[in-house]
Structure to design on (125 residues):
């Protein structure tokens, strides 16, 4: 087991949700940067390297699928885990065809998310 810190980008426009998740993942040794929408997420991705992105599909400024496509052009090897609300499984499946690693339904269990993050990161390294 390597002790490299996993760096993640969490993209979601629910501020309360991202703050709680960032804190909880931080306690598990992950380094998380958050973005409230696609535009900010793309700017962060230009400046930083991430091991994984956690991307909400439904956001105000940009569609999650659109953000996913841009991520895949910018950082083709970075796995993207999509979060989707109930009833958007269709969008999540579309995301899978666009190259997402996997998706989870919100609200997701922290353990499930951590497991997905580790699976995604280990698939690459």
């Amino acid at each position: 087991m390597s002790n490299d810190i996993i760096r993640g980008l969490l993209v979601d426009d629910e501020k309360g949700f991202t703050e709680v998740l960032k804190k909880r993942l931080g306690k598990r040794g992950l380094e998380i940067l958050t973005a409230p929408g696609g535009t900010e997420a793309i700017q962060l991705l230009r400046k930083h390297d991430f091991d994984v992105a956690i991307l909400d599909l439904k956001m105000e400024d940009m569609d999650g699928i659109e953000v996913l496509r841009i991520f895949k052009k910018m950082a083709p090897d970075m796995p993207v885990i999509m979060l989707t609300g109930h009833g958007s499984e269709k969008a999540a499946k579309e995301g899978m065809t666009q190259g997402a690693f996997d998706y989870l339904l919100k609200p997701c269990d922290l353990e499930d998310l951590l497991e997905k993050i580790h699976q995604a990161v280990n698939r690459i390294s």
